[in-house]
Design goal:
It catalyses: a tRNA precursor + 2 CTP + ATP = a tRNA with a 3' CCA end + 3 diphosphate; a tRNA with a 3' CCA end + 2 CTP + ATP = a tRNA with a 3' CCACCA end + 3 diphosphate. The protein has 19 helices and eleven strands. The protein is α+β, with helices and mostly antiparallel strands. The strands form three sheets. A seven-stranded mixed β-sheet has the order 3-4-5-2-1-8-9. It has a two-stranded antiparallel ribbon with strand order 6-7. Strands 10-11 form a two-stranded parallel sheet. α6 crosses α8, α13 crosses α14 and α15 packs antiparallel against α16.
Length: about 400
């Protein structure tokens, strides 16, 4: 067993010693069997939340109403969830009620896909009620039970199916695909933030075209914010993408570039997808850089405005799209040799300009912006005397 499971073993041992059952479950079991690295170890147990809390000194109620208690152990947190069934799902997303049960099988039965419904004992035994091992061996994503019913219960599972396809390079079972075809419209009932998470994970997966293929073929894309108008571009992306993107900024920069969005349209798209403001700004800047890269018009001012991190992302996106791209070191070398990399590095400050007799006010800011650009573009050396004279000359000519 991987080290993470061995480290978590005392938790399970403690629960079992008290007479309850406990297993490793979820993504970590699936990924271990696939030989992939694991992130978080999830534990499922027959003990009720209060019973779990009574067994450990330090716990946090991370989601106690649905049975999840985090156990803190030497700086690591382990999410422990009581076996439960769910019922209701009147809103196509959250169960109306969860019921704690003592049966592992009932708990595994509520899980989304067979490969995610495996349990592992500390002795290495696998519990597999739904042929998850076969599906794992045959690289298949298959809903537990009737896909129509499962997507009707929780529409987010459709997005999870396409994201696992892209992360694992698995095929989605034909009946599960049919289920997605029939239930796509229910995606509009799901919080955009949750769709966002799965969509980004899909494009970060190593085989993004695999997920995009089903995303497009089932029509699922139409029920995501703003995507309906971009069928052609999304299909192009499906055919074009060779590997996963390296981070979320790259994902949205790629989309903005393929959709050919203006600065303002990027803002709208990302607002509709409920993105953070920092992400929006970064994508706007990086998208502008992709366009400059593809036009062979990367100048020093653009390098300066974009910065090394977003230049790397823009170049990665340009490469994926087969529009012109630089060798990344070339682009970064050109950036590195700029005289300054931020306004703070200018050899004069606003204070210096005022000491030289320039009055505070808008023209002070204009003078600084003028110097910034002149230095970035190498028309002036970043030296105090030279910049002071240039500022005075600039303001005299303006007056
Ligand atoms: P990852 O590696 O991305 O964490 P994961 O399979 O662990 O993948 P999680 O979202 O962490 O995914 O969920 C943990 C487990 O909970 C899943 O493996 C699955 O058994 C169950 N699960 C999660 N979301 C759902 C859902 N919407 N419907 C049914 N079961 C779910
Ligand atoms: Mg997980």
């Amino acid at each position: 067993l991987p080290e993470e499971f061995i480290k978590a073993r005392p938790i399970i041992d403690t629960i079992e010693a008290a007479g309850y059952a406990a297993y490793y479950v979820g993504g970590s079991v699936r990924d271990t069997l696939l030989g992939l690295p694991i992130h978080d170890v999830d534990i499922a147990t027959s003990a009720y939340p209060e019973e779990v809390k009574a067994l450990f000194k330090r716990t946090v109620d991370t989601g106690i109403e649905h049975g999840t208690v985090m156990i803190l152990d030497h700086g690591t947190g382990y999410e422990t969830t009581t076996f439960r069934t769910e019922s209701g799902y009147q809103d196509y997303r959250r169960p109306d009620s969860v019921k704690f049960v003592r049966s592992l099988k009932e708990d595994l039965n509520r899980r989304d896909f067979t490969i995610n419904a495996l349990a592992l004992k500390t002795d290495g035994t696998i519990i597999d009620y739904f042929d998850g091992l076969t599906d794992l061996a045959e690289h298949r994503i298959k809903a537990v039970g009737d896909p129509e019913k499962r997507f009707n219960e929780d529409a987010l599972r459709m997005m999870r199916a396409v994201r696992f396809a892209s992360q694992l390079n698995f095929e989605i079972d034909p009946e599960t695909i049919e289920g997605i075809k029939h239930h796509g419209p229910l995606l509009t009932k799901i919080a955009v933030e949750r769709i966002h998470v799965e969509f980004v994970k899909m494009l970060l997966g190593q085989w993004p075209s695999k997920g995009l293929d089903v995303f497009m073929a089932t029509g699922l894309y139409q029920y995501c914010p703003d995507f309906k108008a971009y069928q052609e571009q999304l299909n192009h992306l499906r055919d074009q993408l060779k590997r996963g993107l390296s981070n979320e900024t790259a994902v949205w920069t790629l989309l903005a570039s393929v959709f050919d969005l203006s600065w303002k349209q990027v803002n709208q798209l990302l607002k509709d997808w409920k993105s953070a403001n920092q992400l929006i700004e970064d994508v706007q800047v990086a998208t502008q850089a992709v366009s400059a890269i593809s036009n062979h018009s990367v100048d020093d001012w653009l390098l300066y405005q974009t910065g090394s991190e977003l230049l790397t992302i823009a170049n990665e996106v340009a490469q994926q799209l087969d529009v012109f791209a630089y060798e990344t070191p070339d682009l970064l070398n050109r950036y590195q040799v700029l005289q300054i990399h931020s306004k703070k590095e200018l050899a004069v400050s606003g204070q210096d300009l005022m000491s030289a007799g320039i009055k505070p006010g808008p023209q002070l800011g204009q003078a600084l912006s003028f110097l910034e650009r002149q230095v970035v573009e190498n028309h002036l050396n970043n030296q105090t005397q030279e910049l002071l004279s240039a500022a005075i000359k600039f303001l005299n000519e303006k007056a």
